[in-house]
Specification:
The protein is mainly alpha-helical. The chain has helices spanning about 20-25, 45-55, 65-80, 90-95, 100-120, 130-145, 155-165, 170-175; strands spanning about 35, 40.
C-alpha cells in the first residue's frame, strides 16, 4: 500500500500533536491519525481494522471466529490495558514517578499477556499467520525496553518480538526507525 508519511514529533516544539492544525485531524491530539479514502481516522486499532476491511491482502484477522476473537483480545490488552498508561500525556501528569509508573503497568500487562500468548502463539501471537496482535506487540515491547523492563522474564513475548523483527515490514515500521524518533528518545 502506498502512503505519504507526515512525521509528528511528540517532543519537539512542546509536542507537534498539540498544534491547532493537528487537533483538526485528531481532537484527542494523539498519534496516529491517518487520512485514507477521503476521511481521517485516529486510534491504531480503528485504523488497522479499516485497512483490514478495505484492502484485500494481507489479512490481519483470521477467518475463524475463535482465533479472530483471540487476536482482538490481545490487541485490546495491549492497546487499552498497557499502552495508554505510558502515553506521553499521562507520563507528563505523573511527573517524577513516571519511570516507575511505566515499568509497573508494562510489567503488570506483560504478566497478564504472557500466559495468554503461551496458549495462543505459534510462530506469531495467534497461530502461524501475522495478525493485528503482532502489529500491537512490537511497539509495546519497544516501550518495555525503553522503560528498562526485563523482557527476558516473558519468554513468549520475547520470542515473538524477535521473530517479528526478522520481517522487513516490522523492521522499517519499528518505532526506533521513524523519521521523527530522536536518537536519545526520552521517557
Amino acid at each position: 500500500m502506498e502512503y505519504d508519511q507526515v512525521p509528528v514529533n511528540l517532543v519537539r516544539d512542546g509536542g507537534q500533536q498539540l498544534t491547532t492544525r493537528f487537533k483538526a485531524l485528531n481532537p484527542m491530539q494523539q498519534v496516529p491519525a491517518v487520512t485514507i479514502d477521503g476521511f481521517t481516522l485516529s486510534q491504531s486499532l480503528a485504523i488497522i481494522q479499516y485497512i483490514e476491511e478495505t484492502r484485500p491482502e494481507p489479512h490481519l484477522l483470521p477467518s475463524e471466529p475463535k482465533t479472530r476473537a483471540q487476536v482482538r483480545m490481545i490487541c485490546d490488552i495491549i492497546a487499552s490495558g498497557i499502552q495508554p498508561l505510558q502515553n506521553l500525556y499521562v507520563l507528563l501528569k505523573i511527573g517524577e514517578e513516571k519511570i516507575h509508573w511505566g515499568q509497573h503497568f508494562i510489567q503488570r500487562g506483560f504478566e497478564a499477556l504472557e500466559p495468554i500468548l503461551v496458549q495462543t502463539a505459534g510462530k506469531y501471537c495467534v497461530g502461524n499467520e501475522i495478525s493485528m496482535a503482532d502489529l500491537c506487540l512490537v511497539p509495546q515491547v519497544y516501550n518495555a525496553e525503553r522503560f528498562k523492563v526485563d523482557v527476558t522474564q516473558f519468554p513468549t513475548i520475547k520470542r515473538l518480538n524477535e521473530t517479528l523483527l526478522q520481517h522487513e515490514a516490522f523492521k522499517t515500521s519499528h518505532p526506533s526507525c521513524q523519521p521523527d524518533t530522536p536518537d536519545d528518545m526520552p521517557i
